[in-house]
Amino acid sequence: MEKDILVLEEKGFPVIKIYPDHFEVKAIDYSKYRTFYYSEIKDIKHYDPNNNWWTKLHIMSSLTAQIFSKNDPWILKIIKKNGGDWTYKTSPKSNSEFNQTIQLLKMKLQQ
């Protein structure tokens, strides 16, 4: 069995296990891990899906959207070189350990 380099388990975020040649992600609402090899990944993004012009327009014109949009989950998107992508919901609150883990994965993609 391979030795884990890093395991991130934070409330509101997917579980991420980092190995020397791949990493695994388990969604918040799913019980199985998905394996991603660094050589297959094109990009990893973590973003607020409400941060675009049409959503901002809707939020400005709707009181309900203004109240509830701050609690919408952010998205962790893993894009493969073959065009496939996987999205995982994350907490909208900032987490330094999660951010460092994403930066580590991005660095491993550049190697």
Q: What's the layout of helices and strands?
A:
Elements: E1 6-8, E2 15-18, E3 22-26, E4 34-37, E5 41-47, H1 53-61, H2 63-68, E6 74-80, E7 85-90, H3 96-110
Antiparallel strand pairs: 1-2, 2-3, 3-4, 5-6, 6-7
Provide an overview of this structure:
- By secondary structure, the protein is of the alpha+beta class.
- The protein has a single domain, classed as PH-domain like (Roll).
- The protein contains three helices and seven strands.
- The chain has helices at 53-61, 63-68, 96-110, and strands spanning 6-8, 15-18, 22-26, 34-37, 41-47, 74-80, 85-90.
- The protein has a four-stranded antiparallel beta sheet with strand order 1-2-3-4, covered by helices on one side. It has a three-stranded antiparallel beta sheet with strand order 5-6-7, covered by helices on one side.
- A hairpin with a 3-residue loop joins strand 2 and strand 3.
- The chain is globular, with a radius of gyration of 16 Å.
- The two termini are 24 Å apart.
- The mean pLDDT is 85.
Tell me the major beta sheet: 4 strands, antiparallel
How many domains in all?
A: 1
CATH topology label:
PH-domain like
Share of residues in helices: 25-40%
- List the strand order in the largest sheet: 1-2-3-4
Which CATH architecture would you pick? Answer: Roll
CATH classification class: Mainly Beta
Kindly name the structural category.
alpha+beta
Kindly report the name of the CATH homologous superfamily: Pleckstrin-homology domain (PH domain)/Phosphotyrosine-binding domain (PTB)
Q: How many individual β-strands?
A: 7
Helix/strand order:
EEEEEHHEEH
* Weakly predicted, low-confidence segments: none
Task: Tell me the fraction of residues in β-strands, as a range.
Answer: 25-35%
What is the typical, i.e. mean, pLDDT?
A: 85
